[in-house]
Amino acid sequence: MKASIEQTELFKAMGRVQSIVEKRTTIPILSNVLIEARDDQLFLRTTDLDIEVLDKVKAVVEIPGALTVGANTFHEIVRKLPDGSLIQLIGDAGSNQLEISASKSRFFLSTLPKKIFQLWLLKNMKTNLLLPLKLSRGFLINQSLLCLQKRLDIT
């Protein structure tokens, strides 16, 4: 995998997908983000087995590929890179490493192959529900809080 993407775009997308990743889990792959580079886009996917988040951003993809990497570590690295810089991601399935480089910075992260990242929700669900972010943020979160309040008898 080899792709280039602007730091601000990647940071925003990672902020959205890593929000459901738990820092401590009994299943290590659940703390990872699946990164797929294809069709001049970068697809970022995380899950906690109850919720799955998928985001895509435009990127220049030279070599398509997919791998998983620790979501929180990757998010922190992207956050600390200079704003607006061009980030190059080079993933090597053979060495299980992702190289992240931007301006004068270079990082290497251990990866796991895509096949280990089980997409439980897509396999087990008969129906997918796709909602625009504005609708889901307002309506679903408010309804979920209302249900939780009723269930816990919080007034």
Short description:
The protein has 155 residues and is of the alpha+beta class. It has helices at 7-17, 71-80, 120-124, 133-152; strands at residues 2-6, 32-38, 41-47, 52-58, 60-63, 65-70, 86-92, 97-102, 105-112.
Please describe what this structure looks like.
The protein is an alpha+beta fold. The chain has a single domain (2-123), classed as Roll (DNA Polymerase III, Chain A, domain 2), CATH 3.10.150. It has 4 helices and 9 strands; from the N terminus they run βαβββββαβββαα. Strands 4-3-2-6-9-8-7-1-5 form a 9-stranded antiparallel beta sheet, with helices on one face. Strand 7 (86-92) and strand 8 (97-102) form a beta hairpin. Helix 1 (7-17) runs antiparallel to helix 2. The chain starts with a strand and ends with a helix.
Shape: globular
Listing every helix as H and every strand as E from the N terminus to the C terminus, the arrangement reads: EHEEEEEHEEEHH
Number of strands: 9
Q: If classified by CATH, what would the architecture be?
A: Roll
| Number of domain modules | 1
CATH class: Alpha Beta
Q: What strand order characterises the main sheet?
A: 4-3-2-6-9-8-7-1-5
How many angstroms does the end-to-end distance come to? 51 Å
How is the CATH topology named? DNA Polymerase III, Chain A, domain 2
* Strand fraction: 35-45%
Average pLDDT rating: 82
Helix tally equals 4
Secondary-structure-based class equals alpha+beta
What level of helicity do the residues show? 25-40%
* Main sheet characteristics: 9 strands, antiparallel
Assembly of the depicted chains: single chain
